[in-house]
Amino acid sequence: MDFDFTVEQNRFREELREFLKAEVPVEKQEVFxxxxxxxxxxGRHINRKLAEQGWLAIGWPKEHGGGGKGPIEQGILNEDLxxxxxxxxxxxxxxxxxxxxxxxxxxxxxxxxxxxxxKGEVEYCQGFSEPNVGSDLGSLELQAERDGDExxxxxxxxxxxxxxxxxxxxxxARTDPQAQKHRGISLFIADLKTPGIDLSxxxxxxxxxxxxxxxxxxxxxxSCLIGEENRGWYHAMTTLDYERSGLWRxxxxxRVFDDFSTFCQDSAxxxxxxxxxxxxxxxxxxxxxxxxETWKLLCWNVAxxxxxxxxxxxxxxxxxxxxSEERLRFAEMAMEVLGPYATLKTGSPMAPILGNIEGIHRExxxxxxxxxxxxxxxxxAQRGLGMPR
Length: 389
Ligand SMILES: Cc1cc2nc3c(=O)[nH]c(=O)nc-3n(C[C@H](O)[C@H](O)[C@H](O)COP(=O)(O)OP(=O)(O)OC[C@H]3O[C@@H](n4cnc5c(N)ncnc54)[C@H](O)[C@@H]3O)c2cc1C
Description:
There is one protein chain. The protein is α+β, with helices and mostly antiparallel strands. It has helices spanning 7-23, 37-52, 71-83, 91-104, 107-118, 232-240, 247-266, 279-307, 314-338, 356-364, 373-384, and strands at residues 124-127, 143-147, 150-160, 168-174, 185-191, 197-203, 209-221, 225-226. The strands form 2 sheets. It has a 4-stranded mixed beta sheet with strand order 1-4-5-8. It has a 4-stranded antiparallel beta sheet with strand order 2-3-7-6, with no helix packed on it. Helix 3 (71-83) packs parallel to helix 7 (247-266), helix 4 crosses helix 6 and helix 7 (247-266) packs antiparallel against helix 8 (279-307). The model has no long low-confidence stretch (mean pLDDT 95). Bound molecules: flavin-adenine dinucleotide. The site of flavin-adenine dinucleotide has 18 residues, from strand 1, strand 3 and helix 11.
């Protein structure tokens, strides 16, 4: 593993930081667990500005509207966007849908879908989970029945994050009910304005409003099929391995940890000595610093593997799982150190670090999205340690 960035990569980070410092004032930054509509729209505005600089899809090839660099530059971008708390948008399109279309899409699909993603003009959501299907995704039930030059979709999707902001859903549906479960699944892009698609609000504990999405005789043209019919499972799994460094998530938490460290040195909520004077608090902070550094290296290891042409698999699960658990360890430690103050929400004048501790604690409870902790342990055991299924 090479720990050094090149001169150009360091220059890119410096320019990016100057840009973010100038463009992202504190009041527009996202507080954990409290994304407002105004902040979300601001995040999209920043994405479009990044695109004008050629930075939003910096890791994509130039012919697809990207910056022609690679996973390291994309990692630098994600790390800094997370650290500067730029409200997140466009991540499914940039990290998952775009790469899938580059590999499996037709020329027409590349022309139609890639440029709007690279310009920050569209939002995607991901329709994989269903009311009866989560970890065992291969058992999904949404039907897509071929009818002439269309597919007719019936069924529903669950936990559709970003659905209310999205233009399109990237989804898996069953196209051959007779085939073995993973072999009868296909990948589609559905315009969410298509008649028959309905979104019901589904609030998450982290403050986000997701959806349950129902499909009632939804007709999609054949041109919405991505890749080969009945090969969707394999296409989707391949492309899930693309954007897996998790640097945005790491940096977003790291920022709160850094702010919390400073807060402990500067503040004495009970009017006595600063919190950091207490040996137990110092040791807790030191432990979590160790955890944060480990998490960072695990994320960069994934980006580095991608930049060397390797496909991280167990390594991505190691970084993701470690991150989920480290985020929870940090949130619980901060709650314990601050006591009742930690539960104050953003908007309260006494809320420490703008209410980020209260928000991150709720966010940290979420150990399910992008695969549960148990599923990541299974992947590490099977693909990392070679154990049988
Ligand atoms: C905040 C959030 C955002 C999400 N966003 C999206 C999204 O945008 N799009 C989308 O499609 N989905 C999304 N999901 C859904 C997510 O992918 C599922 O929650 C996840 O796959 C788990 O499925 P489940 O909730 O049905 O739990 P289940 O699969 O029913 O699991 C229940 C419990 O059993 C355990 N378990 C299951 N199978 C095994 C096994 N083989 N070995 C050991 N333990 C096992 C699990 O770890 C878990 O603890 C989101 C979920 C959350 C919480």
